[in-house]
């Protein structure tokens, strides 16, 4: 019975790796803006503006987010049912699932317009980001908190449980860079001018994408049983 269960779950690491790596790649779909005429300046625009309701390529970017979310929810479900169940890893997988759900919501609840391109687009001030007057702000905030929770939980688990060695090297580095970019983003939002807000957010999101890929590879090269 034990051998049958082990054989039945042999596909789990590969499946989780594929789901997480694909999700990481899809979450990087924003790089297509460098090849498409979006009319937005990457140095000052927010990524949420790429799939604003009035943008020409919104369906491309929103579909990428939708598929990312689906992949992440599937990976989270697999992680919670087939892998080691300990507090930090459970927290990590739940956070991955929430990140996926929030990303799906992001894709389905875009901002209506881009103020820089449309004079009639309403602009309301915010204490965090200029576009946070829309429900999209809530889903985006949840997504950011969720992915950071997952990154911290899995990195901590890699040290505490002496597993997922890739997260103790590449994962920790990606987490550090992403955290610095986030600090830049939050500080720059309270300074005059753009202060490279768009660049900071793109580095931040690149870090999130990279961590998903690293996590996927780490799951495949883990040094512990699937359960325990």
UniProtKB/TrEMBL annotation:
The chain crosses the membrane at residues 12-32, 66-83, 90-109, 135-159, 166-187, 199-219. This is DUF998 domain-containing protein. The keyword Transmembrane helix applies. Keywords: Membrane, Transmembrane, Transmembrane helix. It comes from Rhodococcus sovatensis. It holds the Pfam family DUF998. InterPro entries: DUF998 (IPR009339).
